[in-house]
Each structure stands twice: as C-alpha cells, then as structure tokens.
Amino acid sequence: MTAPVHSRPIDERIDWLMALSRKHSASFCSPENHLARQRYLAEHNTLIIALKCMDGRIHLPHVTRTPMGIIQPFRNLGGIFDLGWPYLGDLLADTVQSAVSAGRRVLIIITYHYSKGAKERGCAGFNCDLDAARAHAISIRCQVEALFGEAHQTVYPLVCGFETDEDALILHGPDGRCLDLSTIAPNSADETGARITALFPDMPLPIQRDLLPLVRGNIRHIAEIRESDRELNIEHREWVICIGRGFDFLHAPNLALIIGPFSPDLSHPIRQAAGIIKANMESGRIPGDGFLLLSSAPYQEPGTQKARATLKSAFLLEFAANVIQREFPELAELMVAHSAILNWPERRLEIQPAKPESEHGNRVS
Questions:
Q1: 256 - beta bridge partners?
Q2: Given a cut of 60, is residue 19 above it in pLDDT?
Q3: What is the rounded distance in angstroms from the CA atom of residue 180 to the CA atom of residue 163?
Q4: Among residues 68, 90, 338, 12, which one has the least CA distance to residue 4?
Q5: Are 68 and 61 contacting, i.e. CB atoms less than 8 angstroms apart?
Q6: Distance, CA of 134 to CA of 127 (rounded, Å)
Q7: Using one digit for the tens of pLDDT, what is the confidence trace for 235-281?
C-alpha cells in the first residue's frame, strides 16, 4: 500500500509536488480544455477575479464546474487583503483596466470560508472566527467600491462565503440578505436566475448572466458531495511554504501555506507559516526531515518579462529564507528552498537552476 504523501521522505514529497505541477500544466494545455476555455469566454465575457484564502479546499473552478483559467485567483494567507497595499492595489487596478479596455465587465468574488460541522475546520487566518472572516470580506467589498465606484455597472464586488464541508457557496446581497446554495435542490438549479436578480438588483444583466453558470455548477457539485464519503476531519499537515504567485496547481487540503506577494510586511505571514510548519513537525503530523520553501513569479512573454519574473522570484525566496533563518534557525536547517517562474499561458512551473550552498542550509536553490 502506497504511503500517504505527507508521510513520505521530503525528497519524495517534492518529486510528487513537481509531478502535480506538470500534470496541471498538461491538463490546462490539452486541446479539450483549451477549446472549452475559448468557448466559455465567447459565451461569458465577464472577467471573474477571486480574492481567497491559501487553503487548498477553496477551489472555485472545481466547485463551480468552471473550465480552468476562467477565474483569476488572488490568494493569500487567511484570505487577508487590503487594497491600500501598493502592489495589490496597482495589480488589481491594472487587471480591471485591461479588461475594461477590451470591453469586458468585471466580477470580483471576495471569499471567506468556514465549516458548519466543526469550528476548528474554519479559517486559521482568523483563528476560525467566522464573524471576523465575514466582516473582513465585507470590508474589502467597501474598498472595491471606493476604488471602482458604488454604481457597480462595470466592476461588481460580490462577498461569497465558502462552506468547506459541502463546498457550498453563500452569496451575500448588498442589503444584507444572502443565498445559501446548499439549500437549493439540483432539480431547481435552472430556476435560480430570478433569485439572483432579486438578490442583486444592482448587478448588470451581463454579469448576472455570467454568474449563473457558477451558481448552477455549485448546486450540482454540492449534490455530488452529499453522495460521496469524503474525509472532513483532516489534520493540519502542511509541509510547503509558497510565496509569490502561480500556485494554482496546489489545490489539495492541508498541503501548502501560500503567501501572496501583496502585503508591505511579508515577514509577518512568513513567520506565521513557519510556525505552523514547526508545529506540524513537533506533533508528528509530518516527518521531521524537511519542508519545502517555494517561490514563484509568473510571466507572459519571454525576454524582459521572463527575466523580471526570475529576479522577483529569487528575491522572494531570499527574503523568506532570511525571515525563517532569523526567527526559526533550527527549522531553517531543514529547509529545502527552490525558486521558480511560471509560464502563465501554459501554467508551466519552471524551477530555476540551483545556487551554490548558502547560509540558509545546504539545500537552497
């Protein structure tokens, strides 16, 4: 019987992770998936952006039956964002402007997550406090309105809960009402258009039209989850710290702690992540032979963009390694560090050549 991934030696775990990234790229680039994306975008022109937690359970394309590459993710530890952060604000504004210049509207899905069955399966970034996580998502909606306007005719901010036991979405309307998709029977999924219109009277009809496939897909997905027998009480077994962007392939629960390069103070979430890894080792939830620190930066085209991504990823790796070395020197001795860049059109992760032995242990590359 094959041992679970989290219990294998660190080199085997890393090999498994790299194989997962290659599988994701191959699937993304397959003719069938490529054509599915093209067909979907021809029918649904709205750009969909998701602000979400690094938790691998929060996999919106999977739970909404949406082709890969349609929903553009912004992931961060705890789903904690602030549009006042210079890089995040600029990146979001540039993404929206590019879509608007192409004649597209934008739906920004602002997520929080929780478990209805057990509080401790909620969002660790908010100490499993559902009220705090939901309040933060609502505050981000206010920031989106301050940035792009309150009329919502071009950019619509949608607060969306994610109940992880059944992968159910909870849509929050602007007046405080909400629609829990777990309460809708699959045979009523095609009748949700009127309920969406009633819940979001200020949402432009084209955005409503493009939200509906996600809603109906989630209703069907919930029905399948209820018929399955999946494990819910999964222990924290994270053994990877990711920093940067380009980790869409890491949608497995309790595998990785993903830190987006958004906050001006990256040292804080890095310390949090390292503390979780240390606790996992000390409790025996993962082997004590090592953990992976992986940095990534995406690029669209070769040349300057690729070179810039290479420099950015190397900087993020060095920065994170320095924080871990300073705050957790014994843990740093067990660190295997890799810098990578992501070919965005193909979602292909490219590990950069190893550097010579450094002060962060003997396995930094």
A1: 240
A2: yes
A3: 9
A4: 12
A5: yes
A6: 13
A7: 678 899 999 998 888 877 678 888 999 989 999 889 988 998 999 99
Q: Domain segments of the chain: what residues? A: 1-41+235-365, 44-227
For 181, which DSSP code? G
- Tell me how far apart the alpha carbons of residues 273 and 240 are, in angstroms, rounded to a whole number: 9
Q: Which residue has the tokens 């929050």?
A: 172
Question: Which residues partner with 163 through β-bridges?
Answer: 114, 168
pLDDT band for 234, please (50, 70, 90 cuts).
Answer: low
Listed residue (249, 344, 337, 347) closest to 305, CA to CA: 344
β-pairing, 71-76 vs 47-53, is parallel
Secondary structure element (H or E) that encloses residue 76, with its range:
strand 71-76
Burial class (CB in 10 A: 0-12, 13-18, 19+), 157: buried
String of b and e for 306-324 (b: at least 16 CB within 10 Å)? beebbebbbebbbbbbebb
Higher pLDDT, residue 78 or 336 = 336
CATH architecture of residue range(s) 44-227: 3-Layer(aba) Sandwich (3.40)
Pair of tokens at residue 137: 């998502």
User: Is 1-41+235-365 a CATH 3.30.1510.10 domain?
Assistant: no
Return the DSSP state at 236.
Answer: P
Sign (positive/negative) of CA torsion 243, 249, 253, 254? negative
